[in-house]
Amino acid sequence: MTSVPVRCPVCNRDHAYVAPAYPCPCGAPTAPPLLPGAPALQVTRRTWDEDWVTVRCTACDRRDQWPQPELCCPCGTLLRIPVRPVDEPAPPPPPGPVAPAHIPLPRTAAHPRPSFRPRTIRTGHDAVSAAALYLTWLGYREVARPRVRTAGGVDLRATGLVAQVDATTRPVELRAVECLWLNALGASAAGVFFSLAGYGAQARARADGVGLPLFVMDLTGAPQPVNSPADELVSTGA
Fold first, then answer.
1. Buried b / exposed e along 53-75 (16+ C-beta atoms within 10 A)
2. Do 62 and 141 reside in the same domain of the chain?
3. How far apart are CA 150 and CA 156, in angstroms?
4. Is residue 115 domain-resident?
5. What CATH number does residue 217 fall under?
6. Where in the sequence is the domain holding 72, given as residue range(s)?
7. Which of 65, 69, 82, 131 could form a disulfide with 38, with the two C-beta atoms 3.0–4.6 Å apart?
């Protein structure tokens, strides 16, 4: 599929983005049509209505709701990628090749695991389920919800792990990161944080300092690492 250039408005870093494709009920792979040339928008607060777009399947003409394409910049900024309205005709193809012959991937090392299959997020419960699925994919065993959610906000436990999932519309603050870190220390376990709306600057700095992996999830249910501990966890697995 064709990539579109995306520039982060915060750090001015350039990215090449390709919208993920998912199967339509008819079986055809379908992805939201991106709007070339439109600037990406920083996501500071989430609303469920704005996080879904109408997409038409080119094979069966079915229209359905799909997660709004998003990209997490390495600087920590969560970006919303503009999508062409469903009734707007597609622009004609360019006269010649305009995409580079090769787009570097964020990580070039061979990955020992099969591709992760995300689970679409529509509710807070879905967000926790998607995080549990991802942790299992990373190699953690017996990932489960605690019977009673603790005051510190532990949503998932596994062998040697405690994890928190923030499905609110505001970036995670410093206190939440510190609480999870302390919970992990008390349990002699590793900690992992998942968020739908990203992280505040102080929260991210503290996580970097204590080696706590931070992930941002979009509504497709695909977590993306946003700091070095998370990158290392994805590379090595549990």
1. bebbbeeeeeeeebbbbbbbbbe
2. no
3. 10
4. no
5. 3.40.1350.10
6. 4-80
7. 82
The model's pTM: 0.59
Q: In a 10 Å sphere around its CB, with 0-12 CB exposed, 13-18 middle and 19+ buried, how is residue 219 labelled?
A: buried
Place of tokens 């870190």: 181
Alpha-carbon span 144 to 153, nearest angstrom: 14
* 67 shares a domain with 130: no
Conformational region of residue 76, where left means phi above 0, alpha means psi within -120 to 50, and beta covers everything else: left
Count: domains in the chain? 2
Q: For residue 181, give the H/E element and its range.
A: helix 174-186
**Tell me: the pLDDT tens digits for 144-177?**
887 766 555 678 899 889 999 998 888 999 999 9
pLDDT by residue (tens digit) across 19-48? 877 777 777 888 888 887 888 888 877 666
